[in-house]
Design goal:
Elements lengths: L4 H10 L3 E3 L11 E3 L1 H20 L4 E4 L8 H6 L1 H4 L1 E6 L6 E3 H12 L3 H8 L11 H10 L16 E4 L3 E7 L2 E6 L5 H6 L1 H7 L6 E10 L14 E11 L3 H21 L8 E5 L11 E9 L2 E12 L1 H10 L5 E2 L6 E2 L2 E8 H12 E7 L5 E7 L10 E5 L5 H14 L5 E3 L5 H10 L4 E5 L1 H6 L2 E6 L5 E5 L3 H5 L1
Parallel strand pairs: 3-9, 19-20, 19-21
Antiparallel strand pairs: 1-2, 4-5, 4-6, 7-8, 9-10, 10-16, 11-12, 12-13, 13-16, 14-15, 17-18, 21-22, 22-23
Length: 478
Amino acid sequence: MTYSLDSIVAWAKRRAFAFPWSDIYGWLANAWDLGPYGAQLRKNILDAWWKHFVQERQDMVGLDASILMNPKVWEASGHVSSFSDPLVDCRKCKYRDRADKLIEDHIAKNKLTLDEIKDKIWADSLTPEAWTFDQQTAFLSEFKVKCPKCGSCDWTEPKKFNLMFKTQQWVIDWEWKDIYLRPETAQWIFVNFKNILDTTRMRIPFWVAQVGKSFRNEITPGNFLFRVREFEQMEIEFFCENDEKKWLEWLQNWKDTCEAWWIEKIWINKDKLRFREHDPKELAFYSKWTWDVEYLFPWGWWELQWIAYRTDYDLQQHMKFSWRDMQYTDPMTGARYVPHCIEPSWGLTRAVLTAMIDAYDEEEYTNGNWEKETRTVAHFHKNIAPIKFAILPLVKKDEKQVEIAEKIFHDLSKDYFCEYDDNGAIGKRYRRQDEIWTPFCITVDQQSCEDWETVTIRDRDTMEQKRIKISEIADYIN
């Protein structure tokens, strides 16, 4: 079942997964902080990614690079000249949006076909992002695209809006140099290609992974954590030789690998995942071939990850702008060439959002009095659940129960994130743990005080309770 984004946002705020940024000062629109449980969820997903793709592989190394870099990096990469969106303003109410997204929404809402529009604007695809500004202007006018805020159809002509955040670095007295907050993490890997090659035993083909924050001055951020101006990426660059047969095999292999990771490691519903190949006119300026991994969000299918074949574009550009040799010498044949690159790129912030949406559920059940009730529960797999165990003394004032419960907490918390909760009726405490995705609740009761050996453990999904020995708790989750 698909739930509204409003329900998920309200729950995330209520249960400390995400808070509006700078909320005490009125909030900065569409900016969010991860709360205690959201932060732990993010770490669990990141750890699962790093372990699977870096730690468990012999052909991959990691990198952690800075956010600020020489601005020539972005000139070489093409971001200064080409990294922009088409911006339009409503002349009546001054609402601002991306022209391509307004058109895309209008096409989807009215179920327009290519035959219905191509004669009017001379378009050869249903991908507005690939259209010229003249085509976008013509569509907004011909099809009377309304302003979402006031309903007017009077738009300005599209103009380029660069997505990079610009800041300044002090050089000498009263002189400043423009630099940028990075809009992606990939360029750091390319710039450090020779450093990695010269200081490690990596030989082509090999992979370099990086996790870090990126910044984009989005025109219209929104949909909770999906489109924000400050976000995290998990990126991998695969350096390989220019052999079309081989890179086609590698691309297919990474499609299968990425799909399996979402399903088997993060436990995303496979029916809500799909691959979409980019239209040739939609491709980024550096890409020859790209697939998006898309997820069915409450507002439709949108990008969760992408896998792109970047050719040798980036290394060639940095070699041209820096005058440094980026060629690789094959130790076996002596052949020298600029490696090509395949890039699987994940949005970590979007992964957190997707995991939250995919796990969120509202269930009807029968309570102990045979009455129908509804509980909010998130069916997170135990591997990424923020809290693994909740330890609950049945009676807060019973010193023996508290003593046993605290000992269990301290023993388990050495290996697992646990939560100690002694506030309120046991049923309410179970509901709280259901809402924050805790797989197992351990209740210490009178029998625990009598035998000092057993507790009750409750499963979040089935709500079944079993009596087990305290010494067997850790084995139970495994």
